[in-house]
Write a structure and sequence with these properties.
About 80% of the residues lie in helices and about 0% in strands. The protein is mainly alpha-helical and about 350 residues long. The protein is globular, with a radius of gyration of 21 Å.
Length: about 350
């Protein structure tokens, strides 16, 4: 299924939108000019429509979430195989924008990755615990809050970083670092803060990371290097693929836990919202005041705000005895996507003044 998704994204747009090389004889000059003019107009309309659709990313997130809550069965078709393929498509849509040199440049400044890693596994768990206590959450909900704060960054952050004009290569590297780090950090933090060990399938996480994150990105970068013309044709469609994939992923996760989300009151909704919102704010200003540039600060803010809430829900479901512990992760799926996408759209229209 994942391989099919890769092939579909790589091959279909080029043919479907007329970018495939022509195999017919060259038309007359006048006809060619006319065809070019019509093609340019069509592409211009598409570009404007795609930009508008990308800008309305938060609206689509709300719409898909509402449908999932109202009628969860709508997304029954989105099985685990499709879920995995959508995550892979999301990563692939980012991978084709990257080159190996992007990562070489990023690794020259490890301080950025270390700063975000500290925000992810230092500031966010502490903030989650503080908010849970401040709002008087019962033990099960508090445990769920801390779990959300202690998990890795979500893959959707790479898309939001792209929209926000951040450093996509740095975002991917940070997502990968926190995902691999989750193997040790998540159980350690839960044991330290909650006094309970959360078993983590290290081999399973590593395998999923390779399949869903590293492999699609590697394929995208390889295509960018060896098939630049095809990638150039596909590139305008990458943000749309990313938005659609993210909306389906959010809707699927919400549909699976619609009842707990609807049952969660404002006493839980507000602290979960604040966790992601304040995480993004601190994740921006702390790097900013410590000397990091605008692009890196935006990247770290989105990476910090957007947690892998679906993964948190799975851990709570498998490894927490109290059913209510999984509810914060279910609520977080929605607020994480909304907060990250709103930050991305706001920054999309704020120019980056410095040259990075």
């Amino acid at each position: 299924m994942v391989k099919f998704a890769y092939a579909s994204i790589l091959l279909i747009p080029a043919a479907a939108y007329g970018f495939a090389p022509s195999i017919t004889s060259a038309p007359s000059e006048a006809a060619a000019d006319g065809e070019k003019s019509l093609g340019s107009k069509i592409f211009e309309v598409y570009t404007k429509t795609a930009n508008a659709a990308t800008t309305l990313f938060p609206l689509w997130t709300v719409l898909f979430t509402a449908i999932a809550l109202k009628k969860p069965s709508t997304f029954d078709f989105f099985t685990t195989e499709y879920f995995t393929a959508a995550l892979a498509a999301l990563m692939l849509s980012m991978g084709i924008t990257l080159t190996p040199q992007d990562f070489v440049e990023v690794t020259k400044e490890p301080s950025s990755v270390l700063m975000q890693f500290s925000l992810c596994y230092g500031m966010m768990p502490a903030l989650a615990f503080f908010l849970g206590k401040a709002f008087g959450l019962e033990a099960g909900l508090l445990a769920g809050m801390v779990l959300v704060g202690s998990i890795n960054g979500g893959q959707a952050s790479n898309l939001c970083t792209y929209i926000a004009k951040g450093n996509v290569a740095l975002s991917v590297l940070m997502t990968t670092a926190t995902t691999v780090g989750a193997i040790l950090m998540t159980p350690f933090l839960c044991k330290t803060i909650l006094g309970a060990v959360v078993p983590v399938d290290a081999a399973g996480i590593a395998k999923s990371t390779i399949q869903v994150v590293l492999a699609p990105i590697a394929i995208g970068m390889t295509a960018n290097k060896f098939f630049p013309k095809i990638v150039k044709a596909i590139l305008p469609f990458a943000p749309v693929v990313g938005v659609v994939s993210t909306c389906l992923l959010v809707a699927s996760a919400v549909a699976q836990v619609a009842e707990p989300i609807l049952g969660a009151g404002m006493n839980l909704q507000i602290p979960v919202l604040l966790l992601h919102l304040l995480g993004g704010i601190v994740g921006y200003w702390l790097p900013k005041i410590t000397g990091f540039g605008e692009v890196k600060s935006r990247t770290m803010a989105i990476e910090t705000s957007m947690k892998s809430s679906a993964f948190g829900f799975l851990l709570a479901k498998l490894h927490f005895g109290d059913y209510i512990a999984r509810v914060p992760s279910a609520v977080s799926v929605v607020w994480m996507a909304l907060t990250g996408s709103l930050l991305a759209v706001v920054w999309r229209y704020i120019p980056v003044k410095e040259d990075e």
